[in-house]
């Protein structure tokens, strides 16, 4: 009876050893940096780092664009105020009809020279001799 118990115990230990070896190999493949989940985690970590750098660059560009846009908006508002002042100052200038009444000298453009009558018609049709057209 002891012999059967020892044999079953040895068989159980051998089965547990084989089971542990199989699990160890699977765990190695699972954590492999090229093919397993470890590799996927490494790739994802590298992608997260790249995305963080890209996000930082995008934020810097957005901040620069915001400052440029603010500066240009302030400049446009300043120019708008200057244009409003210039438009307001144009109201003080007399209208062209009032200026013509105030200034009696009127300059008229010279008349164009008379056109000479052409001796030939403007359009002439030439037909070929020697056959129907």
Helix/strand structural class: mainly alpha
Span from first to last CA?
A: 132 Å
Radius of gyration: 49 Å
- SSE order, one letter for each helix or strand: HHH
Can you tell me the overall shape?
A: elongated
Low-confidence regions: none
Number of DSSP E strands:
0
What does this structure look like?
With 133 residues, the protein is mainly α. It has a domain at 46-88. The protein has helices at 2-30, 37-90, 96-102. The protein is elongated and about 145 Å long. The mean pLDDT is 83.
Q: What labels describe this entry?
A:
elongated, 3 helices, 68% helix
Architecture blueprint of SSEs:
Elements: H1 2-30, H2 37-90, H3 96-102
């Amino acid at each position: 009876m002891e012999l059967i118990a020892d044999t079953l115990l040895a068989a159980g230990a051998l089965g547990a050893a084989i089971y542990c070896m199989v699990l160890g190999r699977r765990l190695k493949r699972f954590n492999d940096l090229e093919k397993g989940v470890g590799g996927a985690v490494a790739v994802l970590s590298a992608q997260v780092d790249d995305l963080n750098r890209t996000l930082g660059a995008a934020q810097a560009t957005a901040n620069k664009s915001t400052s440029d846009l603010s500066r240009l908006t302030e400049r446009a508002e300043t120019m708008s105020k200057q244009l409003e002042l210039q438009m307001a100052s144009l109201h003080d200038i007399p209208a062209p009809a009032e200026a013509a009444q105030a200034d009696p000298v009127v300059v008229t453009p010279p008349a164009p020279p008379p056109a000479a009558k052409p001796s030939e018609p403007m359009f002439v049709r030439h037909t070929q001799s020697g056959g129907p057209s």
